[in-house]
């Protein structure tokens, strides 16, 4: 299941694990990324709290935790080569995996149609 936040994060949810990244829309607006800061594995995140930073030559933007949970894995290649996030934000450019505190909370997030309407 794919979900989106109004802050331009996407989540691919599989059971109680969510893979999180920035949307293609956000990547396009930011331009070429030059720096990606990821949360630490084991970090407990609260919905809406900053969980990382993506920085381009134009600007820096916080990445927000889409839901409550614990970081169980990070995509080190995204931090090592931020261009992968710019080029492929929704597959190779994922940022981290979150074990959701309550997977049912994902129902409150946007689906693809609602996100497309938000960004139109």
Explained architecture:
By secondary structure, the chain is α+β, with helices and mostly antiparallel strands. It has a single domain, classed as OB fold (Dihydrolipoamide Acetyltransferase, E2P) (Beta Barrel), CATH 2.40.50.100. The chain contains 4 helices and 9 strands; from the N terminus they run βββαβββββααβα. A 6-stranded antiparallel sheet has the order 1-2-3-9-8-5. It has a 3-stranded antiparallel sheet with strand order 4-6-7. A hairpin with a 2-residue loop joins β2 and β3 (17-22). The protein is globular, with a radius of gyration of 13 Å. The two termini are 22 Å apart.
Topology:
Blueprint: E1 2-4, E2 9-14, E3 17-22, H1 24-30, E4 33-37, E5 44-45, E6 50-56, E7 60-64, E8 69-74, H2 76-80, H3 83-87, E9 96-100, H4 112-119
Antiparallel strand pairs: 1-2, 2-3, 3-9, 4-6, 5-8, 6-7, 8-9
Condensed summary:
The chain is α+β, with helices and mostly antiparallel strands. It is built from four helices and nine strands, in the order βββαβββββααβα.
Which structural traits does this protein have?
single chain, alpha+beta, OB fold (Dihydrolipoamide Acetyltransferase, E2P)
CATH class: Mainly Beta
Rounded mean pLDDT is 96
Approximate helicity band: 10-25%
**So what's the overall shape?**
globular
Specify Rg, calculated over alpha carbons.
13 Å
Secondary structure class reads alpha+beta
**Which sheet architecture does the biggest sheet show?**
6 strands, antiparallel
């Amino acid at each position: 299941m794919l979900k989106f936040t109004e802050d331009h994060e996407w989540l691919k949810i599989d059971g109680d694990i969510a893979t999180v990244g920035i949307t293609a829309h956000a990547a396009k607006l930011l331009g070429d990324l030059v720096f990606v800061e990821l949360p630490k594995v084991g970090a407990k995140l609260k919905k809406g709290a900053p969980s990382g930073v993506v920085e381009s030559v134009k600007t820096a933007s916080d990445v927000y935790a889409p839901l409550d949970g614990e970081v169980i894995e990070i995509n080190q290649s995204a931090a090592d080569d931020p261009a992968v996030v710019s080029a492929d934000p929704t597959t190779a450019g994922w940022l981290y995996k979150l074990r959701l505190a309550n997977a049912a909370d994902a129902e409150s997030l946007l689906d693809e149609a609602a996100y497309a309407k938000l960004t139109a």
